[in-house]
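== Polypeptide entry ==
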Amino acid sequence: MGKESSGHDGMTGAANAYGRKYGITRKAEEGPRNVTDHAGTTNGSWLIWREEEGDEIHLQIRFEIVWHRKHPGGRGLAGGMHHHRINMDMYHPGYFGKVGMRHFHLTHQQYWAPVVNIDKLWSLVPAEAREKVAANPTGPVPVIDVLRHGYAKVLGKGRLPKVPFIVKARFVSRKAEEKIVKAGGKVELVA
């Protein structure tokens, strides 16, 4: 590789063009050399590949690849507002900017309100109390204090049996209260 020659260098058509482009030449006195590939035809590009195999330039001729660079687009999320903007807009809309109001020194204990639906209320009552209520519907009614079971808010998903009872909770949704009253129960709000 890199040997200069004058006149015919023994390469055909396309192979000669590749040779001139990448500085691959052969001495004229070596004479023309036709290399035959597996199909039995003369293939100039195969000739160039054989001459350059194992060399860096061989990869560029054969596969036309670009060398691996460390961080061609920047590290991490670099360019999110510049050269990677299309990707951010398509796949991460709303990534940049602000939403809502600031809340300084935000603490979450004031918003603590685990929820329970009315279809789970009777599971908070012990089995013996349920049997007593089923046996004597006009007797004392059970009191379900959801706060003692780790809940603060009662929501209205599900159905209730037509049995009177009292529910104590910090928060009760409108739908839940309607269903509890319709089943013969009562709601008491506690702090």
User: Anything to note?
Assistant: Strands lie at 115-117, 143-145, 153-155, 166-169, 171-172, 186-189. The longest strand covers residues 166-169.
